[in-house]
Amino acid sequence: IKKEIYSTMKKDLVKYLECPKFSGNTKCKGNLSLKVLEEKDNEITRGSLTCDICKTEYEIKEGIPILLNE
Fold first, then answer.
1. Measured by CB atoms within 10 angstroms of the end CB, which terminus of the chain is less buried, N or C?
2. Helix, coil or strand: residue 22
3. CA-CA distance, 22 to 10, in Å (whole number)?
4. Are 65 and 9 contacting, i.e. CB atoms less than 8 angstroms apart?
């Protein structure tokens, strides 16, 4: 029997995240502010994280924060 284990975004995990955006060879490392659009059972299913320094916004989609640099 295969058991799937996964976790979605929780409010208390935001304090451990930092902005992954690079400018040249320097990583931003700013704190991320949470905006919740949809929540279920203390898990954020839809929302965004915004960097306090560079103001880059990262979407939270289906409970997963998309922290990719473009």
1. N
2. strand
3. 25
4. yes
